[in-house]
Design a protein that fits this description.
The structure holds three protein chains of three kinds.
Chain A (H helix, E strand, L loop, with lengths): L1 H26 L18 E8 L6 H4 L2 H14 L7 E8 L4 H14 L4 E3 L4 H13 L4 E4 L15 E3 L4 H15 L5 E6 L2 H13 L5 E7 L6 H15 L3 E5 L2 H14 L4 E4 L6 H8 L18 E4 L9 H13 L7 H20 L5 H9 L23 E8 L2 E10 L9 E2 L14
Parallel strand pairs in A: 1-2, 1-3, 3-4, 4-5, 6-7, 6-8, 8-9, 9-10
Antiparallel strand pairs in A: 10-11, 11-12, 12-13
Chain B lengths: L1 H22 L2 H26 L8 H18 L3 H22 L5 H14 L2 H5 L1 H4 L5 E2 L14 H25 L1 H11 L1 H6 L4 H27 L1 E2 L6 H14 L4 H24 L9 H16 L3 H10 L8 H13 L18 H11 L11
Antiparallel strand pairs in B: 1-2
Helix pairs in contact in B: 1-8, 2-8, 2-11, 2-12, 2-13, 3-4, 3-11, 4-11, 8-11, 9-11, 9-16, 12-13
Chain C lengths: L1 H31 L6 H17 L4 H24 L7 H23 L16 E2 L2 E2 L6 H23 L1 H11 L1 H6 L4 H27 L7 H14 L4 H22 L4 H15 L14
Antiparallel strand pairs in C: 1-2
Helix pairs in contact in C: 1-5, 1-8, 1-9, 1-10, 2-3, 2-4, 2-8, 3-8, 5-6, 5-8, 6-8, 9-10, 10-11
The chains are: A alpha/beta, B mainly alpha, C mainly alpha.
């Protein structure tokens, strides 16, 4: 009687203690507990994330492929076990590149749809309009689709992270190549008159000696007649005598530049930011003029020097094979071009972060996972992520467009965003893609 | 009398809205604020087009001015919100005066062309003086709820209050204006400006005044929208915005303040609804254009079948015969028409003055054998 | 100096496009007192049809002809079905209907063809002429010469049509006074449809000429329409000559401002010129002073 009481109490006390211990463990992210709805947008079966993308309107061409490509990668992951068994639901809204629509869309995603995180919001002015709100709501704002250096603002915007190489870094890498390989030539800049072009020019100016720069021609992307505008700017570039033109321009304006140069019989060497040099997009815009191009090369894009922070589509390495497989299975109607590659690559990176955030992630877990640093994956250079640095890819390799394909000219270069930071060859090698395609 | 009645309606509406806004969730409060702000712009434009007879296809430019003025005032001068809004209205009104003076002699499509080019050209100012106006990325600023409401008061609810109160004040002012001598003079001007001039009205001054009022309304609207979004960019004030304002004016009911409310509701709530419906039915990116097709179809069908817009349809439905801002005075307007009725039989095509006088409309209707409702939606 | 020549010739060539759009707007305005806000959209749509023909392997000139014919048909159909019911109603109705048409056409193009920028061929080479080593710029290319020739040719043909043919006389009569013309036995409705059809043809021509440099996507003609409308307003909506002069002035002015002042300012310069012209000539440069009946 006494003994049985004592015997009865002890196991129950042990059970109670163990269950309390288990419950306490279940609250942390590294437990083996059952899947729970650990945060808004996370249920036992799904994770919902949101984005704003220009699906229609003037900015849509090309960029409207990115979100479907990311979604294709998420569906691939969902079909192969998901993230700890949860399927990713990607809700992307059309903001038509209009920041007032972006503002409404983001409020809807966060306040109504209660998404877990905002992912890959596209556009510098559009995302700048909503970054303060997203941060005030303490929602993770991962991998903004823009190379503005402004996403690296850990004190004012701790939730926001960039991903692609920022434009200052790109300018420095391009600038160093020009300073090394075009030492006695006259250089001119052709750039978009906003953060994209201005940051790029900043980077270029850090590396190219000022005496070599003979002209700087900014263009207004919202001009009423872009062809007329670019035509006059191209005439000014030609009048400056520049032998090398560095461009920070979107594909449509790159194409117009080449057409205007053809009209002027002016054929300088073009060094272009990765934003404007996707061979398929450019060829698609210029193929009607192929017959006229004469000495300019069969497609007007032959020989354009550029940089790339993702593996080249022509390289057929393990990453490209993986993405080609996913493309053929999920989005065969879209061309397999730079935009689709971008979408899948950033999707892969997000899944990396999701896995790192744990089985029952909170929003702070997701942000903490990236703050702790992400291992290099699909990008050719390492990420800069840390709690003090929210910049993404730190480097790129120089390449040229050869027969419609980006062909490497040299090793990967890494740098930072400062005036004095050196541009060095990357010492790490890019890892191959995981065999099952899941990080 | 008039003022008391209008103010009374406004106060009742205000109390209802304020009570409603505390029940809504944060996103709906944000939408309520946007609707109220948009209604102000649509009301100003419907007065300009429907009452004074001047077609502006570029009122987004005045919203741009109002929005940027507020951003700059809040950022640099640090004035309180109410002062910033009033100052923005003033700045936009001045711009409206300038445009009105420049366009005082313009009619119909010439005025439309000038305002169209204004809407296209003005955002370039933000790019040209980038340090002041922030270029493509615009200006960000912060607005805080006033202290007396407590620290935990939601900013979205405060925005909704401010926007609703401003909308009610503007609507009361416009309603009074429309019933006053100025409103009657505007209608006379709209119906036959030559007759109005011969009757002693200062046509140019009246036209400019209409521009000032409508531009100030657009300025307040732009200012409030900037406050709800906490930023202004040139990309938010495209030509498409001006066109959408125009379509909202017409869909709601031209010349009617109640129509302006409908127009504001449609403009803010319908596009996201359509986009979401399309998205939830799994339309791919190429079919994100389906809502656009729908909008175009609605515009065409409404103009062909219900030209008096929603408000006109409601009036017909309920057989309302009571005097309204539009209805009461049109009797007087009609007196002008009959007093100055031109020699009959002139087709609408033959009037080089442009917009089409009521005399043409009467003549054309007689020629076509119809005797229908005018565009004001009179019962 | 070379830059100046390049800017001028380029501006004249761009101006021809604005002139073509302006011409089609003038045609419709004179006939029906309606501004066709959908003119640019129609031109975009006919260009898509031409692109389908080209991609099917046919020659450029067949596609050109198909585009012009489609413009003819599209203009006639739209007038008959959508715009005719607005006759006799307040002019604002027609404005909203044509705006609705524009939105509808762009949406339909977006659904059928997607929003991707597409490359569009030019009739002739875009490489500018050279005098010795002195390049004259793209405005002197065979393509630019063809643009000028076809727009001016279309204007001349229209003038001949209106001045010297019976049907042109009937169209002018319908525009001048529909009731009187009807009493004289003119089928006014048919003349109106014909006017819209011809405007659709000229708009399609403008589309074929300008799309190589705007690329083809649903919104590609929006800005060109605004500039063409501005050109027509500067010249006077009643005057075809005005549309051409207005277009050339606008084209050259925008190029000079972009080249010599800054790329953000051309539209503001266009606005300034427009307002200046209208302040002194409220109905455009070439408007005939009309008496206003009271």
């Amino acid at each position: 009687m006494n003994r049985s009481h004592r015997l009865g109490l002890a196991p129950m006390a042990a059970l109670a203690a163990t269950s309390m211990l288990l419950a306490a463990c279940g609250g942390t992210s590294s437990s083996n507990g059952a899947l729970q709805a650990s945060a808004p947008g996370v249920t036992a079966k799904t994770i919902t994330i949101g984005s704003t993308q220009p699906l229609t309107g003037i900015a849509a061409p090309g960029y409207d492929e990115i979100a479907p490509a990311s979604n294709a990668y998420f569906q691939y992951v969902n079909a192969h076990g998901g993230v700890y068994g949860r399927k990713i639901t990607y809700k992307y809204l059309n903001d038509q590149y209009n920041s007032s629509i972006t503002t409404t869309d983001v409020r809807q995603l966060i306040l109504q749809d209660h998404v877990f995180a905002i992912f890959n919001g596209l556009g510098t002015p559009t995302h700048l309009a909503v970054a303060p709100f997203i941060n005030a709501e303490k929602v993770p704002d991962l991998f903004v689709a823009s190379g503005c250096a402004c996403w690296n603002a850990t004190s004012s915007w701790p939730q926001t992270f960039g991903w692609q190489i920022n434009y200052i870094r790109e300018g420095k890498i391009l600038g160093k190549y020009i300073a090394t390989h075009f030492q006695d030539k006259k250089i001119a800049y052709f750039y978009q008159d906003d953060e994209f072009g201005l940051d790029g020019v900043k980077g270029l100016d850090y590396e190219i000696p000022a005496a070599q720069v003979v002209a700087k021609e900014p263009y207004n992307v919202a001009a009423a007649n872009p062809a007329a505008e670019v035509g006059t700017l191209a005439a000014a570039l030609k009048a400056s005598g520049a032998q090398v033109v560095v461009t920070f321009a979107v594909p449509a304006f790159m194409a117009l530049l080449r057409l205007s140069e053809l009209g002027l019989s002016y054929n300088p060497t073009i060094v272009s930011s990765s934003v404007g040099s996707d061979p398929q997009t450019l060829a698609g815009l210029l193929n009607s003029f192929a017959k006229q191009s004469g000495s300019f090369g069969t497609t007007l894009i032959q020989g354009i020097v550029t940089d790339s922070y993702l593996p080249s589509l022509g390289s057929n390495d393990s990453w490209i094979q993986l993405f080609t497989k996913i493309h053929n299975q999920y989005i065969p109607s879209l061309p397999l071009d730079g935009n689709v590659l971008y979408g899948m690559a950033v999707g892969y990176t997000f899944v990396q972060a999701l896995f790192k955030a744990g089985r029952n992630p909170t929003r702070q877990d997701l942000v903490g996972a990236v703050n702790a640093g992400l291992p290099q994956g699909v990008s050719v250079a390492p990420y800069a992520y840390s709690s003090g640095d929210h910049d993404g890819i730190t480097g790129a390799f120089m390449a040229e467009v050869e027969n419609g394909v980006i062909t490497a000219l040299g090793p990967v270069q890494v740098t930072d965003s400062s005036a004095g930071g050196a541009v060095n060859t990357d010492s790490t090698a890019q890892p191959p893609a995981p065999t099952n395609g899941i990080p | 009398m008039t003022l008391a009645r209008h103010a009374g309606i406004a106060i009742v509406a205000g109390v209802v809205l304020l009570a409603l806004s505390s029940k809504l969730d944060s996103f709906r409060q944000y939408q309520l604020a946007q609707v109220a702000a948009t209604v102000i712009a649509v009301a100003g434009l419907t007065v300009l087009i429907g009452i004074s007879g001047q077609l502006s296809v570029g009122h987004g430019a005045f919203m741009f001015i109002g929005g940027y003025a507020t951003a700059l005032i809040v950022m640099h001068l640090k004035w309180p919100l109410v002062a910033a809004i009033v100052a923005s209205a003033f700045v936009a009104g001045v711009a409206g005066a300038i445009m009105g003076v420049a366009a005082a002699r313009l009619r119909g499509p010439y005025l439309a062309g000038a305002t169209l080019m204004l809407a296209v050209a003005l955002p370039a100012v933000a790019f040209q003086w980038q340090t002041a106006f922030g270029g493509d990325q615009g200006l960000d600023f912060t607005v805080t709820t006033p202290g007396f409401l407590g620290a935990s008061f939601q900013l979205t609810e405060w925005d909704a209050w401010v926007c609703c109160v401003c909308a009610l004040i503007v609507l009361v002012m416009l309603a009074n204006l429309l019933r006053s001598r100025v409103g009657r003079n505007w209608r006379a001007l709209r119906d036959n400006d030559t007759a109005a001039a011969l009757a002693g009205l200062n046509v140019g001054q009246l036209r400019v005044r209409a521009f000032i009022v409508s531009a100030a309304c657009a300025g307040v609207s732009g200012s409030l929208l900037a406050v709800t979004m906490l930023n202004v960019t040139p990309g938010a004030f495209t030509l498409a915005l001006s066109i959408q304002l125009l379509t909202a004016v017409v869909l709601g009911g031209l010349g009617s303040l109640a129509g302006a409310i409908w127009g504001g509701i449609i403009l803010v709530l319908v596009p996201p609804f359509l986009t979401n419906t399309a998205a939830s039915h799994g339309f791919s990116a190429g079919s994100a254009s389906v809502p656009i097709v729908g909008y175009g179809l609605v515009l065409i069908v409404v103009m062909l079948v219900f030209p008096a817009g929603i408000q006109g349809g409601i009036r017909r439905l309920f057989g309302l015969a009571g005097p309204t801002a539009a209805g009461h005075v049109s009797a007087i307007g009609r007196r002008w028409q009959f007093a100055w009725k031109p020699a009959g039989g002139r087709s609408a095509a033959g009037n080089p003055a442009g917009y089409g006088t009521a005399g043409d409309q009467i003549a054309a209707r007689e020629a076509a054998g119809k005797n229908g409702v005018t565009e004001e939606g009179t019962p | 100096m070379q830059e100046f020549i390049e800017f001028t010739l380029g501006g004249l060539s761009d101006g021809m496009i604005y002139a073509a759009v302006g011409l089609s707007l003038v045609l419709i305005w004179r006939g029906t007192r309606v501004v066709n806000y959908a003119q640019g959209g129609m031109a975009m749509f006919t260009s898509y049809i031409a692109l389908i023909v080209i991609n099917a392997g046919a020659s450029y000139w067949l596609a050109f002809a198909v585009a012009l014919v489609s413009g003819l048909v599209l203009g006639a159909v739209l007038e008959r079905v959508v715009v005719r019911p607005t006759a006799g109603k307040p002019p604002l109705n027609a404005v909203i209907v044509t705006i609705g048409l524009l939105i509808l056409i762009e949406g339909v193009a977006g659904i059928i063809y997607g929003s991707k920028n597409r490359s569009f061929p030019a009739a002739y080479s875009i490489v500018g002429a050279k005098v010795g080593n002195f390049a004259l710029g793209a405005g002197s290319s065979p393509s630019a010469i063809f643009t000028a020739a076809s727009v001016l040719g279309a204007a001349v043909l229209l003038a001949v049509l209106f001045r010297f043919t019976p049907i042109g006389l009937r169209m002018r009569a319908s525009a001048f006074s529909a009731t009187v013309a009807q009493l004289m036995g003119v089928r006014v409705g048919r003349m109106t449809t014909l006017g819209w059809a011809l405007a659709g043809l000229i708009g399609a021509l403008a589309g074929m000429l300008v799309t190589p440099q705007t690329f083809l996507y649903p919104n590609s003609m929006d800005s060109i329409f605004v500039l063409g409308f501005t050109a027509a307003v500067i010249g006077g909506l009643d005057s075809p000559v005005g549309a051409i002069v207005g277009g050339l002035i606008l084209g050259v002015l925008l190029n000079y401002v972009t080249g010599y002042v800054g790329s953000n300012l051309p539209e503001l310069a266009g606005l300034a010129v427009l307002v200046l012209v209208l302040m002194f000539r409220p109905s455009g440069l070439f408007a005939s002073t009309a008496t206003r009946q009271v």
